[in-house]
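I am writing to request your help with a piece of structural work I have in hand. I am sending you one protein, given as its amino acid sequence and as whole-number tokens for its backbone shapes. Kindly check, if you would, that the fold set down in the tokens agrees with what the sequence suggests. You will find the record immediately after this paragraph:
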Amino acid sequence: MVAVGLDFVVAEARRCGIRLILSLANNYESFGGKKQYVNWGRSRGQYLTSDDDFFTNSMVKGLYKNHISSVLNRYNAFTGVIYKNDPTIMAWELMNEPRCTSDPSGRTIQAWIMEMMASYLKSVDRNHLVEAGLEGFFGPSSPQRSRLNPVSNIGTGFIANNMVPVVDFATVHSYPDQWLSNTNDQNQVSFMSKWLDTHIQDAERVLRKPILIAEFGKSWRDMFSGGAAGGGLFWQLLAPGMDNFGDGYEIILSDKRQSSTANLIAQQALINCTRSESGFGEASKGDTSTTDY
């Protein structure tokens, strides 16, 4: 039933001309995450001492690869298009906010990204963009930049991880009220401005790749302009009845306190659907060919 539900979401996005980034796993337990894979490994006799074994244990990595294969090769019951051939999906995300605190050097995450992207995902699907799902924390290979990190020992490296050739674009998250909870709003906004500007500059000058502000918890309007920034996404949009999934950053369409935001989303969705009626929307009706990006 979950897979059919995803089929419907992809089909509706296709009808309205919306492009999707689908995350293939989660770092955190709240949605199953890497812990679930480690538990499956233990149930199959593997001796696993940490959730971080997700990144290194061969059996657990095999389970994750099986999941990737199942999703990418899934036949959409509504559109008749296999996911890996569907231009509705703009990109795959390896994992939401991968972290490996047991190896702060970053080597474990680096090897995992290279294996999962270069050696596996791209061999199954060469049609789509791929990104790692990083929060943007700098690693030991960028010592001067590491001073900007609001937290330490995460095990990722923004520069090194995104320099992997098959990573198509970078991501950065920004939650200053979480990361700097003991400071005032002015300091948090100042941090966020420098945090985002630094990542945009590094994406443009060092990585030479686009960057997406994939999640944020405070407004970043007017804090930067142009450059390599390809867009921004808020976390998270919930439909009526899903209130219990909220974590303080949610936008609930039925909440009257957020009506202005909900109206803006509805207006943009209507524009997208109207624009796609004679083009992209029509192509979704039984067209199973691969579309160039």
Notes: Residues 219-225, 278-293 have pLDDT under 50 and may be disordered. The chain is about 40% helix and 10% strand.
